Amino acid sequence: MKANDPVYIAGHRGMVGGAIKRKLETLGYHNIITRSSGSLDLRKQEEVDSFFAAEKPAYVFLAAAKVGGILANNTYRAEFLYDNLMIAANVIHAAWKHGVTKLLFLGSSCIYPRMAPQPIKESFLLTGLLEPTNEPYAIAKIAGIKLCEAYRDQYGCNFISVMPTNLFGIGDNYHPQNAHVLPALIRRFHEAKMNNKPSVTVWGTGTPRREFLFADDLADACVYLMQHYNEREPVNIGKGEDLTIKQLAEHIREVVCYKGEIIFDAGKPDGTPRKLMDVSALRRLGWKHSTSLKEGLVIAYRDFLQQDQLKLHA
Ligand code: GDP
Fold it and tell me: Per the database record, which ranges form the NAD-dependent epimerase/dehydratase domain (predicted)?
C-alpha cells in the first residue's frame, strides 16, 4: 500500500473507520476515499457496484457496520442481521468484481462460541453455539469472514479478516441504553456526578470479564496487517488482558471522579461470561497495543465531554 494508492474506508464516520482514517493520514496516505451513508447506502448492491466502478479503490478497509451494545443487538435483531449481511456481501463482491488489490474485513470477538475456552483462539470459530443476545450480528460477521475466505479460495483475492475485541475511543456512541458497556458507563457515571446521585446502577452481576482495546490501537493494528499480512486465517486483535465489569466500573468511577456507590442490577443480562482473545498470532506477526486502559479512559471521557458540549450548543 503506497501513499498515493486509492484507499477506500467504508464506515469512516464510525469510531473504527475514523481511527483508521486518522492513522492513514498521519502516515501520509493522501488518496483516501470516503462516502457518508447518506450518499452511498452499502446495503444497496447497485449503488455499491457503481461506486467501485467509478472510484476503483486499490485497498479497502471494511469498517462499516450496524453496531450497538447488548440491548441494541438483542432488540433490533433483524436490522443487525440484514444490514450487516448486505454490507459485507455487497462490498466484498464489488471488491472482487472491480479488482481491488487487498481488502481488510473487520469482524468481532462475538463471532466466537459463547462458551469458548479462554483465551479464544482463531481456530475456535464455529466450534459451538453463539451467545443468543448477539447471534444475528455474529452470523452476519461470520458470513463476512467466510466471504473473504471463499473469494480467496475461488478467485485468489487477497481478502483478510481481523477480529477485534471490545473497543472504545474517540467518536464512540454514548447512548444510555444502546451503547456498549464502557461508553454507557462513562455517561452514567458522569450524569450521576453532575446530578449528585448517591449511586450508579451497572447492568448484570458485574462478574463477566471483558477485554477493552482503544480504537486508535486497533486502527494501528489494521494498517499494520494491511501492510504485512496476506493469509486466509482471521487474526484476533486485542490486548490479551481482561477485567471484570465491576473492575471496569471502578476505573470509570475514578476517571470521572464520582464519589458515590456502584449497584448491580442482576435483572439485566450478563451476556457471555468471559471474552478474552488469544493474541499470540498477532504478537508473532509483530504487533502489540500501546495505550493502557487508564490512558484510553481519560481520552474517552474527554471525548464524551466534547460530544456533550457540542450537543448542548447544537
Ligand atoms: P456490550 O458491551 O453491550 O456490547 O456487550 P457485552 O456482551 O460485551 O456485555 C457487556 C457487559 O457489561 C454485560 O455483562 C452487561 O450486563 C454489562 N453492562 C453493565 N452495564 C452496562 C450498560 O450500561 N450497558 C451495556 N451495554 N452493558 C452493561
Answer: 7-238
> Per-domain residue ranges for the chain?
7-173+212-241+274-291
What is the distance between the alpha carbons of residues 210 and 165, in angstroms, rounded to a whole number?
Answer: 9
pLDDT of residue 103: 99
Q: 149: Cβ below 6 Å to ligand 1?
A: no
As a whole number of angstroms, the distance between CA 21 and CA 29 comes to 9
Q: Which atom of ligand 1 is nearest to the CA of 275?
A: 8
Q: By the 8 A CB rule, do 180 and 168 touch? A: yes
Its pTM stands at 0.94
CA–CA separation, 144 and 138 (whole Å): 10
183 lines ligand 1 (CB under 6 A): no
C-alpha cell at 265: 442490577
pLDDT tens figures, 104-131: 999 999 999 999 999 999 999 999 999 9
Domain over 7-173+212-241+274-291 is classified CATH 3.40.50.720 = yes
SS3 231: coil
For the segment 2-41, what is each residue's pLDDT rounded down to a tens digit? 999 999 999 999 999 999 999 999 999 999 999 999 999 9
Select from 15, 66, 67, 70 the residue to mutate for testing ligand 1; criterion: most ligand atoms less than 8 Å from CB: 70
Ligand 1 center to 270 CA (angstroms): 7
